[in-house]
Amino acid sequence: MSDAGLQPAVSAPLAFLAGGGEMGRRMRGHDWSATPLGPPQSWPQSLKTIVRVILDSRYAMWMAWGPELTFFCNDAYLPTVGLKRDWVLGARSDEVWKEIWSDIGPRIEHVLASGQATWDEGLLLFLQRSGFSEETYHTFSYSPVYDDQIRVAGMLCVVTEVTERVIGERRLRVLRDLAAQSVGVESVNDSCGRAIQVLAQYPNDLPFTALYLINDNGVDAGRDSRTGTRAWRAAISRQLPERLFPPSLDLAHADNFWKLGELQSNALRQTVIGLPQRGVHVPAGPWPDPVQQAVVLPLKSAGQERLIGFLITGVNPRRAFDDAYGAFL
What we know:
The chain is an alpha+beta fold and 329 residues long. 30% of the residues lie in helices and 26% in strands. The chain is elongated.
């Protein structure tokens, strides 16, 4: 007989906390007597019921309960919590979500004051869940939850993170627009000019770009065009532009900032990290954060292995440079 559905033994007063995966175990072991809620045995039946609903759900949920906005969540919500997962249970919700409280606090206050639910679709929130301010998108509803006297006692959030869909659709628009601009191209320079105009419209994923074509002599490359916001251009003008994006780059120069020697030798994507540590402080497209890394992409002629140029692009510091980002570039 399979034991897959068996629950661990739990004392009768804590039976409502049985199961629930990691968060169920943590709720059973948490020192609730040190919180405003007190021991779980003394919780109102309404709180026990909604906690049971949260633990049983495979849909991502979190709750703020009581005057202290005590935080609860289930296992499905842990990826959204990220690095905070070890301390959020029983904490104040305004501390858990300190970085986005200006966005979500008024919504929660509305629910608590009016008893009316809210709805947001694809809301942009900058979460500190991975050690940096991360661009994320969420579709969610905040709903009132009630105590035993049918008074609003807290807020329940049911949420779907749609970050990958929103960013994936944005990147597909880049590729679609590049393809559309390739129709009727009359020359290499015309193609480069059209491409760079498209890339300039998407500073979220491409904070800055510079396109170089290798000259016939094969030893240097000339800059065809570049993009960047006004703030980026101002920053570049103060930071040795001849070093970063000069009109011409020597491909074999040993001290080349953009790893062009490696690019020439293996024709593979090169990543330049730690830009601020290397004296390059330029803002990331629409956000004030400095770009932390850049990528140099080899450009090859159709059907040939030899390089004809390369594209230098900044990486959005509010997104992890993961496989999906690399594949997009």
